Amino acid sequence: MPPLPLRLSALILALGLSACDDAPRFTAAEPGEARSGGSATVRKTDQNAFSLPSANLPPSRRVDFSVGNSFFRNPWVIAPATTTARDGLGPLFNTNACQGCHIKDGRGHPPEADDTNAVSMLVRLSIPDAPAYAKIIERLGVVPEPVYGGQFQDMAVPGVTPEGKVRVEYTAVPVRFKDGTVVELRKPSLNITQLGYGPMHPDTRFSARVAPPMIGLGLLEAIPEEAILANAEAQAKAQSGIAGRPNRVWDDVQQKSVLGRFGWKAGQPNLNQQNVHAFSGDMGLTTSLRPVDDCTDAQVACKQAPSGNGPNGEPEVSDNILRLVLFYSRNLAVPARRDVGAPEVLAGKSLFFQAGCQSCHTPKYTTAATAAEPELANQVIRPYSDLLLHDMGDGLADHRTEFQASGRDWRTPPLWGIGLTQAVSGHTQFLHDGRARNLLEAVLWHGGEAKAAQQQVLSFNAEQRAALLAFLNSL
After folding, report:
1. Where in the chain are the domains?
2. Mapped to the 3 state alphabet, what secondary structure does 19-85 carry?
3. What are the CB-based long-range contacts (under 8 Å, 24+) for 153-156?
4. Mind listing the pLDDT tens digit for each residue in 380-435?
5. Is 133 exposed, middle or buried (CB count within 10 Å of its CB: 0-12, 13-18, 19+)?
6. Is the C-alpha dihedral spanning 51, 90, 95, 296 positive or negative?
7. Are 162 and 136 in contact (CB under 8 A)?
8. CA of 187: how far to CAs of 116, 135, 151, 172, 206, in Å?
9. What is the residue-wise DSSP string for 89-139?
10. pLDDT for 230-278, tens place per residue?
């Protein structure tokens, strides 16, 4: 067998990667490239690959990780209950445990035809912005639907009516490659029925969202703000049609607008606030930052339902439980990459750069020395995201604004761990609403600023497509 450089040169030649292109040609793995999460990277690649603590987390700190895991994994119960540390579920909710959406800490999926509830996919609601709602928009980023609020909840405790049912229907969208191969995409449409509290506002906007993977969130939080803003400045300076923008969102603790970096539209500034809003919207649980149940004025039974608050009015999720869940979510480790030096993977990486995908999926950062957890500080990480908003075109648009994100904008999702989706989650459904049934479909849905990259991929032949997917599946 010829040595690697010769084999790789032959593969590059066969895949038609001409030397005159400006994109780099990768002939070997970069030093440390397999360790996507730096020293925190773990080696498991099975169904539990997303559920491990940072590899550099010392045993003395793994107790808090395990306790946080228990509150993330185990169900909450309806109040009143003998389980006082875990009661207060609802009155309206989408799931009874964090793991109900983030199954095995992985990716959610749209409801199947025979599912009774949407479970790991939720639907955001809002009505059009208007000057009269300026204060609400400043703090929430949206104007919630008046009767059903900002999130549609299809489950409820006994005595309270669920808000309704969510179903997804699909129509076929054929896309043709240059070599004649046709891929049939599926375009979703939401079907919301059995409304429990009367009709919605006539101009209600809907946005389906599946739960994203939980890995590496603490590392993303530790990326310096100036590095994210530098991405936006570099893209604007390049004038290439890629124009990522930071979202500016409300910080509930600081009581001011700050950089957003979490959520499908970068609508949350940090992990603690992301967790607080998930406890409230997804499970109907109160915290010290959101001390009131997620009920609108029209939902009288919801407001009157028993709470799990303590005798002195303590929130259902105590500050200590919130701290433990935050520690857990910060320290869910990123798995190592596989086959980083394989010829097909390296050829696929070259094609990834040739198509310009790295313009938004920024490969590498060094985390801040002041990271919230010492194990996450000063780490060279490879999330493949710029954490900025990009116009992704009409095909992916939800027509729903969120702070400074338009109805066509989405934050670039990190790609690390994406090749283990099948192993962890048991499916390969991607994008914000799970419409893509595999990675190739996800790439083909790219439009707007990513239209040129999509067109480049459509010019790839079968061997090139296989190489690109081999690279993506190695991440």
Report:
1. 4-474
2. CCCCCCCCCCCCCCCCCCCHHHCECCCCCCCCCCECCCCCHHHHHHHHHHHHHHHCCCECCCCCCHH
3. 153/92, 153/93, 153/94, 153/281, 153/284, 153/294, 154/94, 154/117, 154/118, 155/90, 155/92, 155/93, 155/94, 155/95, 155/117, 156/90, 156/91, 156/92, 156/93, 156/196, 156/302
4. 999 999 999 999 999 999 999 999 999 999 999 999 999 999 999 999 999 999 99
5. middle
6. negative
7. no
8. 22, 35, 22, 6, 15
9. --SEES-SSHHHHSGGGS---PPPTT-SS-TTEEEEEEB---GGGHHHHHH
10. 999 999 999 999 999 999 999 999 999 999 999 999 999 999 999 999 9
Q: Report the distance separating Cα 368 and Cα 416, nearest Å.
A: 19
CA dihedral 32, 35, 40, 41 (to 10 degrees): -150
Q: Tell me which residue of 87, 142, 434 sits closest to 285, measured CA to CA.
A: 87
Do 138 and 250 contact (CB within 8 A), yes or no? yes
Judge contact between 386 and 244, C-beta under 8 A. Answer: yes
Collapsed DSSP state (helix, strand, coil) of residue 439: helix
Angle between helices 319-330 and 59-73 (to 10 degrees): 110
**How are beta strands 256-260 and 365-366 bridged, if at all?**
unpaired
Tell me how far the alpha carbon of residue 28 is from its chain's centroid.
30
